[in-house]
Amino acid sequence: MTTEPASTIVIDPVTRIEGHSKITIHLDADGAVDRAFFHVTQFRGFERMVQGRPIHEMPSIMARICGICPVSHLVASAKACDEILAVEPPPTGADLRRVMNLAQLVQSHALSFFHLSSPDLLFGFDGDPAVRNIVGVAQHHPQLARDGIAVRRFGQQIIEWLGGKRIHPAWVVPGGVDAPLTAETRDRIVATIPGALAAIRRTLDWYQTELVGWEEEAAGLGSFPSAYMGLVDDEGRMDHYGGRLRVVSANGDRLADDIDPRSYQDVIGEAVEPWSYLKSVYWKPAGYPAGIYRVGPLARLVVSDRFGTPGADAELKAFRSRVGRMPSSTFHYHYARLIEVLFGIERIAELLRDPGILSPRVRSHAPINRNEGVGVSEAPRGTLIHHYRVDDDGIVQWANLVIATGHNNLAMNESVTQVARRYVKSDRLSEGMLNRVEAVIRCYDPCLSCSTHALGDMPLEITLLTNDGVVLDEIRR
Amino acid sequence: MLIIGVGNELRADDGVGRAVAEALATDARLAGVRTRSVRQLTPELAVDVAAASLVVFVDADIRLAPGRIAVGPIGDARPGSFSHHVTPAALVELARLLDGGVADAITVRIGVESLDLGYPRTAAAERGLRRAVEVIAAMVADRGAQRRDEASCTRSR
Question: How far from each other are the two terminal CA atoms of chain B, in whole angstroms?
Fold first, then answer.
């Protein structure tokens, strides 16, 4: 820690996020908030664990990092393995990976919005915790709960029908996918599309009406200028599977475009702080910690010119006219997430309409042809990078993972500091402050299990400390 | 009727509830009964629960004597603040709120002795598995007989 603050507040654990974290809020000598730190207190060490394993095992091992978005790790890992084999999956294999990746996006965003965040939006950040949950949502707004369940089920079913199971399917493999799509499975998926589309459209309508009442909260909820990063295709459309990296500054200038993801280390740095197992990823040209940027649904909406599907493009236009071309509030991750769900469903429908999707050619085979590979994709929470080095027998010697939550770490710390500065007025913690700290973290939908490769479940704690380390107050959830 | 087996098959005996559901899925005595084998109870299962007249939740219980079976009510419906997964009672309540489905629901708990990392189940859990299958099969047979009796009474009226 670089500061010598006068006091510190700790929030431990943070609830309704993927994992366990702790927040410390440091006061200066005058009792004002100096800095806040979002600590991730778990460790798993997947990069070290996989050393010595053959690369063909990597997708399946890496999928075990997370039970929420295993498909994202499968895809990024398989792409890194493609590089090592020096193969391109057949077009149908790549499209089938896209379908599963989008299904993952839809189900993960549905979990984040409907199950974890909609209780805050429906009952307010200060609402009774006894009803701020999915059962409370079902009681007070059954249609919203029904739609949430329908949308998540849509994504989960696709993953199960393609991969054989909802969690940790092994269908995405180096070189493509393990088995072609049958007409029967395609038709089953297609039959569920209208219901999912109707559910997300109803939710978007509801959200756009509700948004008016949230403008004041949004202005103080992690609202600060930052750069944004995401993958776009060669026409500037959002690309969750392939494409190249684009980075846009807080005022909308392109800091970089057309970056080959394989050269990510030229532009992205990874700092390690002694107070967290979560790496702080930064934009190298701006240095550390000035090189703060955000990834994920909001970032993808900012960096891309358009989605490329009609409904999502219309919603993108409405989004930009409502919150601007360069939104600064973290709160708008929710809105962006909903539009991405619409895009995901529309794009899955497009991919399945192509008769070529039933081609039996879905996998390329090759021996080890390179000693290094980088696989990049857009996971629900943002850009996901898997980077492996192997020996001539394909045995992993070194691995590096740059996870979405790591890219967002500096921004999450900035967001928590901003909320603390606004709501901490004394040497005591208030429920209102605690609720907003949790809410701003949930906007990023951080996956701490992924980003720290941690073991176990995790809720949040907040601690308030003086500059000489005396604990003034503590809250645990 | 719906049987939901819950657990993590990579945590030794914890997966015994799933093993019961999977065994019952291919048991000829349970024709027409739906089964689900899941790692945890998620809100999405409310759709299946709403469509059932009886839901049986099968899970491991480290507090019970290993190999013992306990059949009981589903308990309190208050969900935790972490809403990825829900309790059996919260799931039944969700089904009622969303679709008006009012299913009878019970839990079948199987006493286990190890929740350590690893696949093999203990002999006690295997014993519990076999007993749970028989208990549930008998329950299904009783319910079928009861329904036939009710139908017969209705016809004779």
Answer: 26
